[in-house]
Amino acid sequence: MSIFPLHSQETAPEGSKELLAKVQKKYGFLPNLFRVMAEAPAAGQTYLTVMGYFNDTSLSEAEQQTVLLTTSFVNQCDYCMAAHSTMSSMKDLFQPGDLEALRSGSALSDAKLNALSGLTRSIVETRGWPTDDARKAFYDAGYGNAQYLEVLVGVSLKTLSNYINHASEIPLDAAFEGGKWTP
Q1: What mean pLDDT, rounded, does the chain reach?
Q2: Residues of the chain with CATH 1.20.1290.10
Q3: Coil, strand, or helix at residue 28?
Q4: What is the CATH number of domain 61-179?
Q5: CA Rg, the chain, in Å?
């Protein structure tokens, strides 16, 4: 059982009220992740700020979701896997079978996304010291140093929410039930 409260706009600390209003407006509901992060205004503000920067990278939306899903898979975050699976599915970002490959840790049919996922996985598993093979496959797929650094931004973003979920055992929102995942 979690000791972290699920805040509403009314119960959130003063520094988180505006953040929750933004999230409510953006998503049309308050995802439980943000309700938990509201306990520490710096957590929610950091997450939204880094998410904004990650959204503005040169990586496509499918590439961004590949980084986020791969990180969540390696970190075994059931909440983030469900949320990003649902969002990716709604936007039809992947070729048939590739979302399931990300959810199972298998190879993707898209070679470029597979190289991206491989680098991401290696970064997370080795705490930032990816294998030479993962790096070579990434660069051979056409990515450059800028994208490598952008992957690190995505890994940082997702590791923050993965670890918040681990600490708080966030209950899955009804909106993400269709993407439910267990490690």
Answers
A1: 96
A2: 61-179
A3: coil
A4: 1.20.1290.10
A5: 16
